[in-house]
Sequence to fold (155 residues):
Amino acid sequence: MAEELAHQTSGLNIQDPFTSQTRVTPKMAAKFYKSLFGRDVGGRLKEIGLNKPFSYNGAHQDFSAWLSSVKLYLTTNDHIYYEDQSKITFTLSYMGNGSAHAFAEAYVNENTTALGDLKIFDGWDKFVTKLKETFQVGDTKATMLIYLSAIHQGD
Fold:
């Protein structure tokens, strides 16, 4: 793409304010592309290197800190996680133990089509509301119901 941009603009006579060049070079076009899109030509978007959230186990006392770390990570990397479905699947992937895992498993099962495709129709805000209703301090009954619904004979 940078080469194409450079080719299309090669006849233009512009003044680069940082150099004495007057013709657009492939290097200049690539630099311009990177300034617009935050990545090299043909490169993949990269996540900004923050600590990822810890794996949540459903403990009420850890919920607020965990959800804050998830939101911080998603906000910082909103150039990748800009769709509600990607935010929700990222969050579910950090619900790996205990009643949190049971919640994630139940959520995935509820949102899986007959053909086996995961189709999440909830928006991010609705999903966070479900998390808060389930895991914020005081709702131990809901947490236990989710945990019990995920128990299979032989476990």
